[in-house]
Amino acid sequence: MILSSLTPADITEAINEANVNLLKGIKGIGIKTAQRIIIDLKDKIGKQTSAAEIFISEDNTKREEALSALVMLGFSRNAIMKVLDRIISEDKNLTVEELIKRALKNL
To answer: How many whole angstroms separate alpha carbon 8 and alpha carbon 37?
Structure first.
């Protein structure tokens, strides 16, 4: 019923912004159900990455290679991912070796 009333983008926006009124406007959903949907799905929807981030193949390959190398050195995967994302956002023209060197300085 929700998907026939709103687009997926509208639903995502309503959940991220905790817009109870938009969800409540859907037939069959009251205020408590709308609040429950927001509480249950906010963390899950907020963690999604956009399609543009997923399909950056060259940067993604470099990132994955650097991530793999740093995990093999014993660093935490989550910490490495945060550092690599920050480094790549600052400079997208780095080689895998440069990525690893910068990440090691930040870990």
So the answer is: 14
